[in-house]
Design goal:
disordered N terminus; 9 strands; 10 helices; Aminopeptidase; two-stranded antiparallel ribbon; alpha+beta
Amino acid sequence: DLLVGKAAELPPSPHPPPQPSARVYSVRPYSAADRSSVYAICALTAPMRIAGASTSAAAGSNGVVVDDAAAAASVAVSIAGPGPGVGIMSAADAELYGDRYAGLLLELSCDYCFVLESDTGVCGFVCAALDVAKLRDQAGEFFGLMRRRHPMLRRRGAGGAVSSAGTGAGGGHEAAVHPAAHEAIEYFHSQQPEPGSNLPNQVLSRFPSVVHLDALPGVFSTEQDLLALRRLLACCFAALKTNGSPGVHCRLAAGDATAEVYKRLGFLELSYTTDSRLPSSVTLLGRPI
């Protein structure tokens, strides 16, 4: 009775015990057959990377919420189908967001890419490059292709003003563009879109590898699911460390909701000097491995 009474007086733990998860996960290397699933995840989580979004759900271009691997698999099938506009989102949506967040690493560094799979399909992935400086030197052809694939367009704003923006095809037309799509287009057409641009030397020396982690929002929901993401990262980190990397970094836009997920997985926000020429809207996270 004394022990029960003392326990009742203790303050509640700030970290409640993990909730049971019915999901069973496995981790395996990325293969070319996973491309449509990975691109679907990028498209479904792109709104989370805009300030004010939430990690609780993600939506396609028509606002349909998708938060499990089975639904994402159906999106991937639609994307791989004969034409755009099929299913929850168009093929152009997936191509734009997939190219923006995963395309370069899948194209030039697929040996460091892994997928997280449940019984309903691919529900997460991580991709990385051993040395972001070398990746930058190899990225010119890729970004040239992206500028041709995703041309700048003219977008009419709320007040009637027309500004530069973009969508996947039909260059030169005015179009309503989602903020996430607008950011992706501007990224490809910026003067220095290559990875590692303007990063301070102290970051490049301690955290030379670049990493990108993404998963369906449902995988962020419990501590046990986060353990699956830890195992996914561990496979990637082991491959990087075996080849001599001391640490990894990721570069996020301010307000990117996935920053909290990275921090829960052991990443820390990196400070850097103001002469690094990084815009104030960029958040750098790093982790030794």
